[in-house]
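Researcher: Can you fold this with flavin-adenine dinucleotide in place?
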Amino acid sequence: MSVDLVWLRQDLRLADNPLFGGPLDEHLLCVYVLDERWLADGRLGSARLGFLWQCLIELRGCLLAQGSDLLVRLGDPADEVAKLVASEGAGRVRVRHDPGWEEVRAVDRLRHRLANECRVEVLESGMLFSSASLPLAIEALPAGFSAFRRKMREMVPQRGIPAPVTLPPWPPSAPRGLPALRRVCPRADRWRASPRGGFRFTGGEAAGRARLDDYLWGSGAVSHYAHTRNGLVGADFSSRLSPWLAHGCVSAAQVNDALHAWETEHGDSESSRWLRFELLWREYFHWAARQDGRTLYGRETAPLGGDAFAAWCRGETGLPFVDAGMRELADTGWLSNRARQNVASFLVHDLNVDWRLGAAWFERCLIDYDAASNWGNWGYIAGRGRHVRAHRFEVLDQAECYDPHGDYAVRWCPELSSLPAGEARHRPWRHAPATFPPPLAPSTR
Ligand SMILES: Cc1cc2nc3c(=O)[nH]c(=O)nc-3n(C[C@H](O)[C@H](O)[C@H](O)COP(=O)(O)OP(=O)(O)OC[C@H]3O[C@@H](n4cnc5c(N)ncnc54)[C@H](O)[C@@H]3O)c2cc1C
């Protein structure tokens, strides 16, 4: 009996997933391993874990429909995969090249453990471009986004590939299924996003495709993207595709293909071009993370938290625009790009707190966390690592520009609702006593 093992990570979809492409062996074993350390050290928060579980449940349904299945394990990913290779006699492991340092190391460890026993195939997926098609070697990637963009100007993104029609059967003796979330992490099972966010994220490939369809063809909100993308309140000011892209429920190539189809009917516009431009930022941070390796996360010493950091996490800095953002993040697991930039800049440049603490807090809270985009954007704002220049946002000016009536501030800080609309709602204020537990200092990588 010959077995292929597909080790799924941030590629939780069937369509446009090369792990399921090409000739596969007689039997197929599909595995996801939740790294127990992420639960133990708190870096995987309830919101993201809940979303992830929805993705896994949906993916299992899709795999079953194709004649396969999914096994979800908890533990050290490389160890668990190695054990399954041994017990099922797999001859090949397929895994996506995830850009995070630990993800790369996990594959190296697996290779080392399996030595000549089994072939480990690392495939690229989820991106607009493949490394082979880049006009430069990854080691020669320019430090800044603008230079990268100029180099990519003539490049045509790859097209998505369809989902497989059928998949090889499950190895007869292999375990199946996934544990209930309430057993893995009861607090994540109980977690619900606040309806104040005005949007409900549901994990999985079907929900991701539905959001893409709705944003393009349903509401047609994409046609206003260039003018609304800095929005703060509402469901459609931006695509909100990030959680599905981060977990790989949809790929960047699929988004680009859909955008292309939309442009064929509606003509290309400033808005559709701008959305594609944002996907290029994602691309840049992903390739940059591959080039940066461990340095993406900053120095090796553990950063120290303090009162200012704890107040920032709780949304109690006294700056309404910042507090609103931090509360939205905690209560929904998501935040607009404009708010992310401001809360990050405030932490680093106004509170003078180590940027790595902020990045680690985002890692815990965001449902769309992805190592490359998160640590890359934080480094960009802090001016660390590959980013020679820091990016500071004047929070009060930004509040007046993007939240002129203070509606966003009041939405998340209802204590301010008695103040007249406008500038009064942006002034520094005294917050109520702490209501959230103080955060832990994150571990180093
Ligand atoms: C401090 C900070 C941390 C961030 N952490 C993350 C993260 O962990 N995961 C994440 O996906 N994005 C992160 N971003 C980028 C960006 O804020 C989000 O991708 C975006 O807000 C998601 O909303 P959207 O899907 O509606 O984006 P849209 O504006 O609709 O853009 C479409 C897609 O383009 C990509 N994109 C847009 N802007 C960026 C950007 N600056 N960097 C990388 N990709 C981008 C995303 O995949 C996004 O889904 C971070 C930004 C900052 C400033």
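Model: Folded with flavin-adenine dinucleotide in place. The CA atoms of residues 107 and 269 lie 42 Å apart.
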